[in-house]
Amino acid sequence: RLERAEFILDTEEHIRHKEEEEKQIAAVKEEIELSNLAKMYLRDLIKRQCWDAMSTKGRAVKAFKSRLEVSNYPMKSQSEDEIKELERVQLLRKIEISERNVRME
What we know:
- By secondary structure, the chain is mainly α.
- It has helices at about 10-50, 80-105; strands spanning about 55, 60, 70, 75.
């Protein structure tokens, strides 16, 4: 019985084809790895901005024997500047309401 390699008449051409295939395989692997790396970076960026930045993480508690679900409200951490701006806006709103009440009297 003949071996499989004995059927190859042009061994140089066969070797050249194998080397070409291996180069193509390596190029595709590198492309996939770079694509995966870019996706991992994007995932980490989104996670940092949307999950890690939350002071209260979004969670839900589901009942075992019914379809009820209780969830909390996720809250983003606020910087001192944001807190000061919020307090300023709340004060302005209180002043506005007070002025309206005085004018109506």
